[in-house]
From TrEMBL:
Residues 24-128 form the VRR-NUC domain. Its cofactor is Mg(2+). Pfam families: VRR_NUC. Keywords: Hydrolase, Nuclease. One of its GO terms (molecular function) is nucleic acid binding. This is VRR-NUC domain-containing protein. The lineage of its organism: Bacteria, Pseudomonadati, Pseudomonadota, Gammaproteobacteria, Moraxellales. InterPro entries: tRNA_endonuc-like_dom_sf, VRR_NUC.
């Protein structure tokens, strides 16, 4: 998803130029996360290959809303999912808010349910916080370098030993 020239400015992050819009609306923060994830190496592909964005937000007609609900879309479901088990969790779910955003009561309930079922959950306010949470969870350090040594240290620290999770 490209941002229009009128709504974006270049920002230097980890040696990459990303488009950062003004003002920082939530959908723009989502775009920044995915732009970054598409540039980050992970395994034999990119970090974005193991991520999903749930497009729950936005305005829909009542007919379209009913169709989405019938197909299983759930209100309050987090914005991003990373479906890689790490650090003793089944995966990572992130609710991403603009810097002044507010988490709804239903979003809090859904995040608590996910956490109770073995997922790491986080509410992030803006791209920078989401990038930090994702990087910490995935073991991304020094730009896009994935460190197996760091993962082993985390496993040891979390009492997981050297075996597969």
């Amino acid at each position: 998803m490209k941002l229009s020239a009128s709504e974006s400015r270049a920002v230097q992050l980890d040696g990459f130029k990303l488009k950062s819009p003004r003002p920082a609306r939530e959908d723009h923060e989502h775009r920044l996360v995915m732009q970054w994830a598409r540039m980050m190496n992970w395994g034999d592909g990119k970090l974005s290959d193991v991520m999903h964005h749930s497009p729950n937000g936005g305005k829909r007609s009542p007919r379209e809303g009913a169709k989405f609900k019938e197909m299983g879309t759930q209100a309050g479901f987090p914005d991003f999912q990373i479906y890689v088990p790490r650090q003793g969790f089944h995966g990572l779910f992130i609710e991403l808010k603009a810097r002044q955003g507010v988490v709804s009561p239903l979003q809090k309930i859904v995040l608590a349910r996910l956490a109770a079922n073995g997922y790491q959950t986080a509410v992030c306010y803006g791209f920078d916080e989401a990038k930090r949470v994702i990087s910490d969870y995935m073991g991304l350090y020094c730009g896009s370098v994935y460190s197996r040594e760091h993962e082993e240290k985390l496993k040891h620290k979390n009492g997981l030993g050297g075996g597969n999770e």
